[in-house]
What does this fold into?
Amino acid sequence: MRIILLGPPGAGKGTISKALNKYDGSVQISTGDILRGAIAEGTELGQKIGAAMSSGNLVTDDLVIGIMEERLLKEDCKNGYLLDGFPRTIVQADALKVLLEKMDSQLDCVLELVIPRATIVERLTTRRTCTQCSEIYNIKFKPAKVDGICDVCGGDIVQRDDETKEVIENRLEVYQKQTAPLVDYYRQEGSLLSVETSDFEPVLAALKAYI
Ligand code: AMP
It folds into this structure.
């Protein structure tokens, strides 16, 4: 599948894209994971973006577009890709359109996850993430077998520093202002599929019916 996942932080984009990756091998490309990786490695890019990320603001369009231009050309994207967290602005969506045209690649759809705000805030404040493989846990609904240790890879599980209550509020505001306009952008293009769930089975059924 070739899909963009759209929805606020905590809507379930990462979880759905990991499940779709297992289902058909389409590669999950999470710009958030790529950017966190750059910070963890202390690269020049990581140093530029640390402050924006920990305050919940977006990294500049040119940086993210540059990353995606390289990433989408890699061999593994030929079997399909699940864009988790990109595009996040109209400028990024326009750049993606040009890039896909150059690649002669067409999206199957833009999948919007519509989840109530209260559910999102609860999910994000109780979410924990593996620092190594990015597996997602939740202290209430999906705890790790051994506290603080990832079931999948044995890495450390932590609360992301952009998942405190204050930063979450800012991320949701940033989503409303900068990313939510993409819903209309893709609706007008005729490629938007909106679902009011983040459970894998109904999402997959909706995708199959749409594609
Ligand atoms: P995520 O893991 O998708 O929630 O992203 C975490 C953070 O990474 C965001 O709050 C932004 O600071 C940054 N980020 C991820 N994707 C993008 C993007 N497409 N454009 C700008 N910043 C991004």
Q: What stands out?
A: Residues 9, 31-32, 35, 52-53, 56-59, 64, 85-86, 88, 92, 162, 171 surround adenosine monophosphate (CB under 6 Å). The beta strands are 2-6, 27-30, 81-84, 109-113, 127-130, 136-138, 157-158, 192-195. The mean pLDDT is 96. Residues 165-179 form the longest helix (15 residues).
